[in-house]
Design brief:
Elements lengths: L14 H13 L3 H17 L1 H5 L2 E3 L11 H9 L3 E8 L4 E6 L7 E3 L5 E3 L14 E4 L3 E3 L4 E2 L5 H7 L6 E6 L4 E2 L14 E4 L1
């Protein structure tokens, strides 16, 4: 495993090093293994009382080997929940939560190759209405701190959410570190992290 191969002190790890190594591990996973692990993570999410009570859930559109979310969104739809996805405003470095009417016909490729709702087929979700936000991350630590891809989109978005909104990070076991030596003031942690 990646962390076992680190022979120098954890304080020498940089955000860049961790991002590069974990993104490589994500992309190099066997698809069958990735989907099996994702299913285990999904099982934990759907067992959460907070998820079961939630009426509106903002997911993320998985890319590059991340924990698979499209099946989760389908199931959430079937349970009668309002499902949302972020729409990325690249020029403003901002995330806007949008409702997803149809996963089959209502999405298009947005910035960074990430699927997002087509503007004509959706509506903006009020942040006050978000009961739960499912958050991607390159890595998380045991205190639920999160390392993203470096754009700061989620840090800014998470800061704007009401305190009652539950934020859940999804990750594979190799994405979890004991602690981050590089946590910064603007970094925002999540309520909890679910792993396989």
């Amino acid at each position: 495993m990646f962390w076992e191969s680190i022979t120098y002190a954890v304080c020498h790890l940089t955000k860049k090093t961790v991002r590069e190594r974990i993104l490589t591990l994500l992309r190099n996973q066997k698809e069958e293994e990735r989907l099996a692990k994702s299913l285990a993570v999904a099982g934990k999410l759907f067992k959460m009382k907070e998820f079961q009570k939630a009426e509106t859930v903002l997911f993320y559109a998985s890319i590059d080997g991340e924990v698979e979310t499209f099946d989760m969104m389908k199931k959430a739809h079937q349970l009668g929940k309002t499902v949302g996805l972020p729409s990325i405003l690249k020029d403003r470095k901002k995330i806007v939560p949008m409702a997803v009417a149809s996963l089959e016909e209502g999405l298009e490729e947005g910035p960074y190759g990430i699927k997002q709702p087509k503007p004509a087929q959706t509506r903006v979700l009020d942040e006050e209405a978000l009961d739960m936000v499912v958050v991607p991350g390159v890595a998380f630590d045991r205190k639920n701190n999160r390392l993203g891809r470096g754009g700061g989109y989620y840090d800014r978005f998470l800061k704007s959410l009401p305190s009652r909104t539950v934020t859940v990070g999804l990750a594979y076991d190799f994405q979890i570190m004991d602690s981050f030596p590089f946590q910064e003031k603007h970094d925002v942690s999540v309520s909890c992290v679910l792993s396989n």
